[in-house]
User: Which sequence fits this backbone?
């Protein structure tokens, strides 16, 4: 429906981690006995899914969980199956999420040889106390070493992640994290405000009153500082949580934000082809059983126009591409009412957005309130 470009991607979810971080409720297991079975199943699923989209593949993204936990043989098995069954563009952006403690010299060289040309390294903080509080599996020293090794071995397109809004995190600690981050000069930076999810250790601690979420004003101060600091260092704030040096905006994530088609492989992964969305089961042993029995591991949802419109608003408003009301009129017969026009005028006069040529584009100040903008604009 949105075929403004033909960028298509493959996402592979590796649902395993060495250690559970205290904040994370993504789908992963720390029991590693099913790794080989999941890998074999993903390789088979890649073959079976090949007719889901017809476009050539421009991005491959191993996410998780912790894809860097896989050994050479396991990574090769999945990659070979993908290269065998899909048309892969020469200009492929091939990203793998890695935790610093997995990035040995041997692994980096191997990743480069199988075609990985971008690594997303889960840094989270450069402060050892904060890393321990988050229950991360690595030290700050390991992050520095891994970045150095990647750069030495020719993987220089690096994305590093940080978390802010952490209970007890001082303003100074956050400033130090941003400073350490930019000293490494990565091409791309993701900064996530901590969400305390119910079914996590932090969720449990919050219930018991053992931790307090930081005040909204403090998180807003951290956000403002981050935005100014990273922009001064030459990063483009192109999505609420994402910053990139010019020409290094993540192609894979942009494809999601542009509603381009993608195939999701592995437990918990989603696929989208413009008309339907498929949700793979988030249970490793059930996923393996279904694949072995040659049964679909997913449920399918046919998206109606209203759902596509809501997704368009929800995803695009969080990016510097913004909302195109001409396109929304053409595709969904969407028209702004008077109340919504007044709302848009208000955020424009408060310097949170521009509204030019029927396009609403939030700036960094506006991104901070993007959730409330969505609520005003969805039908
Ligand atoms: C799910 S992880 C997968 C990659 C890798 N395992 C890692 O830890 O970086 C992707 C990103 O999501 C972030 N994340 C997960 N749960 C979060 C939460 N509750 N609040 C903020 N960020 C979160 C992680 O810190 C990480 O930067
Ligand atoms: S943040 Fe990353 S390493 Fe930590 S539990 Fe979640 S997926 Fe695993």
Assistant:
């Amino acid at each position: 429906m949105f075929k403004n470009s033909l960028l298509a991607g493959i996402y592979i979810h590796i649902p395993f981690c060495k250690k559970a971080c205290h904040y994370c409720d993504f789908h992963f297991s720390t029991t590693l006995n099913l790794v080989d079975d999941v890998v074999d199943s993903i390789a088979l699923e890649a073959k079976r899914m090949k007719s889901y989209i017809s476009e050539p593949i421009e991005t491959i993204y191993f996410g998780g969980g912790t894809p860097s936990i896989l050994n050479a043989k396991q990574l090769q098995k999945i990659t070979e199956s993908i290269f065998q069954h899909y048309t892969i563009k020469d200009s492929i952006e091939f990203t793998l999420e890695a935790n610093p403690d997995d990035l040995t010299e041997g692994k980096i060289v191997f990743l480069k040889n199988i075609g990985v040309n971008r690594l997303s390294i889960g840094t989270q903080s450069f402060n050892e106390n904060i890393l321990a509080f988050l229950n991360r599996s690595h030290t700050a020293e390991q992050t520095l070493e891994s970045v150095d090794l990647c750069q030495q071995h020719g993987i220089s397109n690096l994305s590093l992640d940080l978390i802010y809004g952490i209970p007890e995190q001082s303003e100074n600690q956050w400033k130090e994290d941003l400073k350490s981050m930019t000293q490494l000069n990565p091409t791309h930076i993701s900064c996530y405000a901590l969400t305390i999810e119910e079914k996590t250790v932090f969720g449990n601690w919050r219930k018991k009153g053992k931790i307090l979420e930081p005040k909204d004003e403090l998180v807003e101060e951290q956000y403002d500082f981050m935005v100014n600091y990273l922009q001064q260092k030459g990063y483009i704030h192109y999505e609420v949580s994402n910053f990139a040096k010019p020409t290094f905006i993540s192609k894979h994530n942009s494809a999601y934000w542009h509603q381009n088609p993608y195939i999701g492989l592995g437990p918990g992964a989603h696929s989208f082809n413009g008309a339907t969305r498929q949700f793979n089961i988030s249970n490793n042993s059930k996923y393996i059983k279904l694949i072995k029995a040659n049964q679909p591991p997913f449920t399918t949802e046919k998206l109606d126009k209203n759902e596509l419109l809501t997704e368009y608003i929800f995803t695009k408003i969080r990016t510097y591409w913004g909302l195109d009301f001409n396109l929304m009129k053409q595709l969904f017969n969407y028209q702004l009412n008077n109340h919504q026009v007044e709302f848009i005028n208000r955020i424009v006069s408060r310097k949170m957005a521009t509204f030019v040529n029927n396009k609403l584009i939030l700036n960094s100040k506006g991104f901070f309130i993007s959730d409330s903008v969505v609520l005003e604009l969805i039908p």
